[in-house]
């Protein structure tokens, strides 16, 4: 199936988005066969081209989140650039955009205008705070989404200030939620013929993954606080081995707690009054953690891994990227791709996820040069070579 028809072939996406959340949504669709046309300002391009580490002129972050796309340069501030978008709209299924609310409307490219041109259009709108509400027009990036969404408050340990979450997961979560929304909207359109718009925000994506925190506060009035390196509700957390490796482990369920105690040489512990129920374990976990930490500290990582495997206690070394590149499980899952690049030969990047048995995704290139497909796209809209030359001369493309 690697060279066969892709499941999203025939879906055309116009990406009016930059940095991470919108482009990540777009790249997910491109990996499964959608034609994604990325629009960038002439000359400047997406800011992510200049963010993060690079080799020569190649930005690693840019290349990963824009792989497999086509590149069109277009000045959306200019009426001629806006006209090109309007000529593209009848030929696309999805528009991804992450301007502040009202910007596209000011340019005559808002939902109410574009859906008149193409009633089957799906328009996904990504912002920090959403399209409505008192903060809707405020700027924001992943850190702000995390802070406002409640996840930054929970990051770190109880004896320290909140720690900035990394990587920029509100962006990636929002891209993923938006991609799911787009696929749902396309399914609705297949059934009804009706397009729609999607309102995605960074803070709501962060808020959605705060587990039980909302119910706990709403019902009990209890604010969930930061924990420690060890879990406060059951045995679990991270411990250092004798040879300096950090290992994460967890035993939240009764049968896992029993396995952990057997491993520690205390098989009777789960039946004692202090540990026989989840509620009692939660109260008495601190008394057990010192024993667990001492057990890890007395053994090398190789000994710890072998014993955890033997007793089937969930665990993992806390992996650095060097660990990832050496790990046999990553290799067996083919999770690091060597993606073709015209300057560097190949770039190692994470593989496509999830893995589909009949129609897996694939990656054809590690991000296009700025405006690489401009002539092809405009020619398809009926612009002549002379027209394109004039647009280029005027700085529109």
TrEMBL record:
Keyword Transferase: yes
Keyword Flavoprotein carried by entry: no
GO function term, MF aspect, one: CoA-transferase activity
Keywords linked to the UniProt accession: Transferase
Protein name: Carnitine dehydratase
Organism expressing this protein natively: Candidatus Entotheonella gemina
